[in-house]
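Protocol step 4 of 6.
Sequence for 50S ribosomal protein L20 (Zostera marina) entered exactly as in the expression construct, tag removed. Do not edit the line below.
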Amino acid sequence: MTRVKRGYITRRRRTKIRLFASTFQGAHSRLTRTITQQKFKAQFYAHQDRGRKKRDFRSLWITRENELVYNYSKLINDLYKGQLLVNRKILAQIAILNKNCLFSISNKLKS
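Step 5 output, structure tokens:
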């Protein structure tokens, strides 16, 4: 059987993978097999943490609102009943920057 030289295609693919893993440490940045495993793991965690970031920010906003208002769930319920469409991010910013405004909103919703 004749000898087959692999050519440049595999080398190009490996260098692309190595560029992705250039910031990894140890064998994770040097050995092709561990680079591919580490790349798969990194992309999995990146995908997972994009959803987790949304979850964490929402809980942060809820915590900020809950510090100042009588009852968070009642506030959200009153907002829906009063047809005031203000999302939790904006409410949290109001809670940080202008507490009196949030108090006045909650008092008007109570009455």
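Step 6, annotate. DSSP finds five helices and no strands in the chain.
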